[in-house]
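We treat protein structure as text, and this decision shapes the records that our systems exchange. This encoding replaces a full spatial description with a residue-level series of whole-number codes. Below, we set out a record of this kind in full and without editing:
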Amino acid sequence: MGSEGPSVVTVHVTGFKKFHGVAENPTEKIVTNLKSFMEKRGSPKNLVLGSCTVLETAGEGAVGTLHKVLESAIAERENRSSPQGQVIWIHFGVNSGATRFALENQAVNEATFRCPDELGWKPQRVPIVPSDGSISRMRETTLPVIELTKTLRRIGYDVVPSDDAGRFVCNYVYYHSLRFAEQHGIKSLFVHVPLFLTIDEEVQMHFVASLLELLASSN
């Protein structure tokens, strides 16, 4: 019996709009341009780039849209008669003080915003999902962050694994996504990127494409 090759991997991505102190969010541009970039670059046959969504940089403002696109992707998967393989959500956010990429291993059930989000909300030590209990509750990705990091570094990217996604909107969205992923048998990962002034747009686009291709090839 011959090999059927790697199974299909559908990757959905999100980024964020501008927010306090970041007038131009690189993740908005990355997510907006990703489909055309991947078409020009070419990608593995088993990699399907699904939805590319830009979220408000606001806790509840982002989560409403997030749940809509998450649920839409699940409904689409269930409506298809043929098996669709793995579904992965990759969320991109900017860390304006960073000098390299970071793959986030976990999110914490705590919202402590250092400044108001784009809807004016500034929670302090509030549980993101009260029914999950304490603000110390953590959820981890089921993707192999260490292995992904090592491979991306071998390719030539300056990237590190991270256990701290902050307590702002990035962590807020990631926690909700990890919770949803666990409930629906999919996978989720958050990636922090620097400003384009630190690592230019072309390099960041190639990094994102390499990450997606790696996820497809390792499935």
User: Anything to note?
Assistant: The chain has a mean pLDDT of 93.
